[in-house]
Each structure stands twice: as C-alpha cells, then as structure tokens.
C-alpha cells in the first residue's frame, strides 16, 4: 500500500491532494485512517508527530461522534496548526543594539548548513529582503574552502546591491573573514551582517570546531544575534540528521527550509521543529532573489491541505 500511496503522491504532487481524496470518501473506515497516517509519514511529518496527530484525530472524532470527512479535515487542520506551533518566535532578530562601548553595533547573522542545501542562495535572498526593509547589509564569505563559494556570494552581493567581504586566498581562516565582515559592517555603519559558512559534514569534529570558532571570533566585534540553519526540504530524514549535527556544533536560533517549491514533503517542517525545538523562520521557494518568504504557519497548513 505504501507503494500505491507513493505513486499517488507522485501523480498528485502534494500531500494535500492525497489527503483530500481520502477525506472526500465520506464516513471514514479503518482503511482510510491508515492511509491518512501513511500519507503524513510519506510527507516527512515524522513518526513521533504523526502518531501524536493520529491519536488526537481519532480521539477528537470519537468525542465528536463522527468520522465525517469534513469534520475530520477541520480537526486535522487544527491539530496540524498546533503541531506547527504558531506561537513560536519567528522574527529574525536584527533589531539595533548598543555595544559595551556605548556605540551601536550591527546585528550579526551566521548562516550554517551542509553544502548544496542552498546556503549561499539563502544569504543572497535574505540580504534582498533586509534591504527592502531599509537595512544596511554587509555580507561575509566565510566559506573559504571553495573559491567558487565566495564568487557566488559576490555575484549575489552585486545582484542585491550590498558589499561582500571576502578573502582572495583560498583556504584563508573563515573566522578571520567573518571577523573582518563584522568589523567592516561596524565601520560602514551597517546594521546587519550576514555571514555565509562552509558546510563539509564529512569532518564532524572539524566542522564543530570551525563554527564554534567563527562564532567566538565574530562575538569580539558584536554578539551573534542569530544562527540560521539551512536545510533542504527534499532530503527528508537526511536533513534531520544534519540538523542534529549542526545543533551540537552551535546554538541554532532558526531554520530556513529551502526547495519547498520542489517537494510534496513539506511535513518536514513539523518534524524539524519538534526535533530541534527551533522555529522555521523562512522558506525557500525557488532560485530567484525574491524566492524567500517568512514562514507563515496558517498559510503553510492550508497549503498542505489544499
Ligand atoms: P550552498 O552550497 O549550500 O551554498 O548551496 P547554493 O546556495 O549554492 O544552492 C545550491 C543549489 O540549490 C543552487 O542551484 C540553488 O539555485 C538551488 N536552490 C537554493 N535554494 C533553492 C530553493 O529554495 N528552491 C530551489 N528550487 N532551488 C534552490
């Protein structure tokens, strides 16, 4: 049956379509309940949250004395929304602050994640969003491992009209570049500094050391306000494992879930937040500069169910 469901998901493209087709059957039989459960699992909602959701769904519909599809749908919507938790703080905290020396210092945001998840693209898009909100932004290319990474960030800087601090030397100390970026941000009176980092997961100890050091060294210029973890929504449980490793390396304050445009697996939002206790703050919906959106729980749940 999982195979049949998988095929149906592939055809319809969204779990919403699959759920709706199950929920359009009128009074739900045991079989239908199981299909709802499997659909949630296939959408990467995760075993824990799915079990929790199904228990609530069954209990509440029992209380209501109905298995009427419309009512089940309403309960599912409410419970999904509760799981996504609209009360989490999803604001990107880049409010102005005054340093120990009485001078204003920029809000710094460290962006971490495995290579290929969309980190650099996210830094570019985020800069675009912040500039549109009248922030003065400086970017730091602390992914010094690959020269192409700094080039890519420079391209984004030019595209959105913000300066990029980088090292011309491949293999330069990423913490030094991050430090310079914040320093330059301070000097230029910028109010936000976004720092892109490398994400080589094959060397876990090295990665942890590197991120810890970057954060420490940046903090000498200004406290690191946000650490955003970029996760690729299409990688499912793999993304969850990455999230665990990164959250051991550095305190994550928010998640950016990229490539939600290319997947029916949006349920990963629920799994990731539950697992890490950290809110999804933005979602990536494409490769262009305007394809980053603040995460809206209601909108998200409605999209899942439409
Ligand atoms: P990095 O190695 O983590 O810095 O990843 P990149 O920023 O280089 O992105 C890797 C690829 O994913 C690029 O081709 C991006 O255009 C693409 N990408 C990034 N974010 C999104 C997104 O939200 N949707 C889609 N469809 N593609 C994305």
From TrEMBL:
Annotated localization: Cell membrane; Cytoplasm
The SRP54-type proteins GTP-binding domain, residue ranges: 279-292
Keywords annotated in UniProt: Cell membrane, Cytoplasm, GTP-binding, Hydrolase, Membrane, Nucleotide-binding, Receptor, Transmembrane, Transmembrane helix
A GO cellular component entry from the record: cytoplasm
Keyword Phosphoprotein: no
Broad enzyme group: hydrolase
Main location: membrane
Annotated catalysed reactions: GTP + H2O = GDP + phosphate + H(+)
Membrane topology listed for this record: Peripheral membrane protein
Any single biological process term in GO: SRP-dependent cotranslational protein targeting to membrane
One Gene Ontology term of the molecular function aspect: signal recognition particle binding
Keyword GTP-binding included in the entry's annotation: yes
Positions contributing to GTP binding: 113-120, 196-200, 258-261
Enzyme Commission number(s) from the entry: 3.6.5.4
Subunit structure comment from the entry: Part of the signal recognition particle protein translocation system, which is composed of SRP and FtsY.
Functional note: Involved in targeting and insertion of nascent membrane proteins into the cytoplasmic membrane. Acts as a receptor for the complex formed by the signal recognition particle (SRP) and the ribosome-nascent chain (RNC).
Family, as annotated: Belongs to the GTP-binding SRP family. FtsY subfamily.
Protein name as catalogued: Signal recognition particle receptor FtsY
Organism: Georgenia ruanii
Record gene name: ftsY
Whole sequence portion shown: 84 to 389 of 389
């Amino acid at each position: 049956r999982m195979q049949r469901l998988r095929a149906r998901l592939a055809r319809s493209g969204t779990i919403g379509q699959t759920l709706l087709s199950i929920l359009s059957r009128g009074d739900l039989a045991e079989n239908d309940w199981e299909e709802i459960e499997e659909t949630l699992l296939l959408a990467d909602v995760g075993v824990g949250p799915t079990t929790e959701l199904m228990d609530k769904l069954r209990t509440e519909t029992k209380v209501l004395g109905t298995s009427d599809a419309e009512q089940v749908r309403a309960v599912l919507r409410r419970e999904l929304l509760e799981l996504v938790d609209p009360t989490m703080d999803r604001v990107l905290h880049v409010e102005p602050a005054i340093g120990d020396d009485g001078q204003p210092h920029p809000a710094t945001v460290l962006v971490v994640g495995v290579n290929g998840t969309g980190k650099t693209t996210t830094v570019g898009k985020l800069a675009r969003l912040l500039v549109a909100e009248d922030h003065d932004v400086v970017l730091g290319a602390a992914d010094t491992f690959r020269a192409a990474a700094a080039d890519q960030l420079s391209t984004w800087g030019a595209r959105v009209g913000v300066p990029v601090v980088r090292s011309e030397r491949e293999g330069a100390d990423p913490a030094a570049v991050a430090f310079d970026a914040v320093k330059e941000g301070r000097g230029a009176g910028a109010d936000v500094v976004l720092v892109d980092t490398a994400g080589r997961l094959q060397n876990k100890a090295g990665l942890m050391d590197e991120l810890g050091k970057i954060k420490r060294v940046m903090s000498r210029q200004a406290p690191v306000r946000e650490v955003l973890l970029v996760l690729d929504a299409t990688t499912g449980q793999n993304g969850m494992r990455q999230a665990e490793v990164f959250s051991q390396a550095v305190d994550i304050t928010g998640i950016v879930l990229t490539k939600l445009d290319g997947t029916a697996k949006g349920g990963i939002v629920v799994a990731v937040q539950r697992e890490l206790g950290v809110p999804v703050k933005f979602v990536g919906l494409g490769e262009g500069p305007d394809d980053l959106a603040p995460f809206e729980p209601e909108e998200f749940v409605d999209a899942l169910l439409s």
